[in-house]
Amino acid sequence: MSAQLVLDLPRRFAYDEADFFVTARNDRAFGLVCQWPDWHAPAAVIWGPPQSGKTYLAHIWQARANAAFADPAALEGHVWAARQPLVLEDVDASALPETALFHHLNLAREHGSFILLTARTPPGSWRIALPDLRSRIRSYPTAEIQPPDEEHLAALLLKHFSDRGIEIAPDVIAYLVQRIERSMAAADAVASLLDKAALAERRRITRAFAAKVLKTVSGGSDEADDEPDANF
């Protein structure tokens, strides 16, 4: 049977709080989100590597606080009445409009509102020229998300396959956990890779099929099972 055309259709990203998998790697960050609105400051910071779960937690907080997302790089032109809490993601990804950010933080404090900031690095390492802004940000509650361990990685893989509408067997998850980088980015990438390969070949994702696909993309060898893959 010839391979079918695989269309790169958008998939649904689910950010349901009930589906967020809490481990020792992210429990402090999740706890910080859950502590709102009892923060001791008008803002808080969650930081960690790319695709570690910061956006997921930001959406959980958005739902809890009825918050809005705003682009940190565009704060100078952002009109905010401070009535609705605000999410600023990846604030350390580019040069910050420091005066505008300081103004937003002051508005949050004056009006009893809140801002959640996410970043890849801890606030102490951000290059901030304004002394008042630097000290203000460093005074906020902060929580780190660490790269996932095996248990967390398995849960991430299950979620990424589930978001694509794929039921996956435990032995496939166990196989993948031992062979991919421990990161949310890797879990998402391998789920996407296997999804597209399975659609193209009209096959079910089994351990043997996963081994074959990973061997193909890596150009290496693997101890793939000899069992045949079932067609749809």
UniProtKB/TrEMBL annotation:
Superkingdom: Bacteria
Name of the protein in its database record: Hda lid domain-containing protein
GO MF annotation terms: DNA replication origin binding
Xref: InterPro entries: Hda_lid (IPR055199), P-loop_NTPase (IPR027417)
Record GO biological process: DNA replication initiation
Species annotation: Rhodomicrobium vannielii (strain ATCC 17100 / DSM 162 / LMG 4299 / NCIMB 10020 / ATH 3.1.1)
Signal peptide range in chain numbering: none
Limits of the Hda lid domain: 149-214
Cellular component terms per the entry's GO annotation: plasma membrane
